[in-house]
Design a protein that fits this description.
Largest sheet of chain B: 7 strands, mixed
Largest sheet of chain A: 5 strands, antiparallel
Oligomer: heterodimer
Strand order of the largest sheet of chain A: 1-3-8-7-6
Order of helices and strands of chain A: EEEEEEEEEE
Largest interface: A-B, 27 and 32 residues
Number of strands of chain B: 11
Radius of gyration of chain A: 13 Å
Strand content of chain A: over 45%
Chain lengths: 112, 117
């Protein structure tokens, strides 16, 4: 069955450093993958979408890569700030184009 | 506000009660979704509606009953729930263009925190 894995351990980094989060998927080849941010008790907020024919996508301090050979997406936040502290979810589609399944998320804590 | 409004924000109900969760989107999207998020678990897709037609029921127990009267409103009717149904219930919407999503992803509401006692 389709499986999505994100590092369940929290990632702790110092302010100003680059945070790198990993999303691995197995048993299928999604046409795209989305990344979301979720704060406690709130709904996820869409950040970026990357398609299978795009190697890299950028938005301000965010960068996402998509390696269809490794079946992996990396999510980078450069010059991280304490306000970036949240849980980050990767979400490829399953079945229909618009039926997203979500990874468990990786909690990021950026310390001053 | 994100453009997707969920009410109520918090709900406590007994196992014999009947209640409904409401979701409304003002984005002109044509697809709406219910997700369940339990503590320390990934979001679980429950139901998908495209153009107000249900296109997905992810093996959800019948004590959860969705209703989509139009493409802007989505309800989740609850009856005889169990304590393990306590969770954050999230509604989302998107624009389904049939060949993949727009670059804007899903828009989620803030969720209803449900506690079954």
């Amino acid at each position: 069955s389709q499986k999505i894995e994100q590092n369940s351990e929290a990632l702790n980094i110092q302010e100003g450093k680059t945070a790198t989060l990993t999303c691995n998927y197995t048993n299928y080849s999604p046409a795209y993958l989305q990344w979301y941010r979720q704060d406690p008790g709130r709904g996820p907020v869409f950040l970026l979408l990357i398609r299978e024919n795009e190697k890299e996508k950028r938005k301000e301090r965010l960068k996402v890569t998509f390696d269809t050979t490794l079946k992996q997406s990396l999510f980078h936040i450069t010059a991280s700030q304490p306000a970036d502290s949240a849980t980050y979810l990767c979400a490829p589609p399953s079945g229909g184009y618009n039926k997203l399944i979500f990874g468990a998320g990786t909690r990021l804590a950026v310390h001053p | 506000e994100t453009g997707v409004t969920q009410t109520p924000r918090h709900l406590v109900m007994g196992m014999t009660n009947k209640k409904s969760l409401k979701c409304e989107q003002h984005l002109g999207h044509n697809a709406m979704y219910w997700y369940k998020q339990s503590a320390k678990k990934p979001l679980e897709l429950m139901f998908v509606y495209n153009f107000k037609e249900q296109t997905e029921n992810n093996s959800v127990p019948s004590r959860f009953s969705p209703e989509c009267p139009n493409s802007s409103h989505l309800f989740l009717h609850l009856h005889t729930l169990q304590p393990e149904d306590s969770a954050l219930y999230l509604c989302a919407s998107s624009q389904d263009e049939g060949r993949g999503p727009t670059s804007y992803g899903y828009t989620f509401g803030s969720g209803t925190r449900l506690t079954v006692v």
